[in-house]
Amino acid sequence: MAETDRAIFLSSRALQGGPRWGMAINDLSETRILGDLSCAAGVQLRARDLPALRGLLLKMAPDVSRAVSRPKKAWDRPRPYLVDAGPICTKPTAGLARSPDYPSGHATWGWSVGLVMAELIPDRASAILARSRAFGESRLVCGVHNASSVAAGRTNAEALVAVLHGSPAFRADLDDARRELETVLRTGRPATGCDAEAAAMATPLP
Q: In this structure, how many other beta carbons lie within 10 angstroms of the beta carbon of residue 205?
């Protein structure tokens, strides 16, 4: 697996400067996840218009953080750009270098949100999950996570969201967010920039 990850990191450096690289830069901010899912949902998703959904995600965020931090400490795997030279799409700060590679926190967060959103908007589930997967894969494109760490993030998210469904409070929050989204889906503004996003997502990854 390690050699496969290294080969993927090196070959994916060729994406620098292209549309998929631009998406990876956009996806650096975990706080933009709702906006990033706008095209998949078919309407503009803005946190200020969705207080119940925003509250649900804020409650979920510490659970995601705990699900990521423990295995990161256990594996303590270096990020790929620290093993092999190659450009990355963000500043190589000391803080980034100190944070281990496995599993990807971005991928865990993006896939967790995607699973929730796919449940809330089931008729758009395929598009939502495709964009959520791309959100995690942006870390591979960026060069700050190995492919196996991104995949582990999705597995991590699936386990976490399954556990959260055992909480009556979580299920109640889902119901509130679903009702809120129904209104936004009927009355919201159409999403923009979707053709460019689709073109970036169509870029083959190594």
A: 14
Q: What is the mean pLDDT of residues 51-65?
A: 97
Under 8 Å between Cβ of 53 and 44: no
* Residue recorded with tokens 């936004």: 184
For residue 204, what are the CA distances in angstroms to 61, 141, 150, 173? Answer: 30, 11, 16, 37
Q: How far apart are CA 20 and CA 199, in angstroms?
A: 8
Query: Distance (Å, rounded) from C-alpha 184 to C-alpha 205?
Result: 34
Counting Cβ atoms within 10 Å, is residue 171 exposed (0-12), middle (13-18) or buried (19+)?
Answer: exposed
What's the CA gap between 182 and 77, in Å, rounded? Answer: 42
pLDDT in tens, 121-140: 999 999 999 999 999 999 99
Q: What is the pTM of this model?
A: 0.96
Give the list of residues 6+ apart from residue 98 with CB closer than 8 angstroms, or none.
none
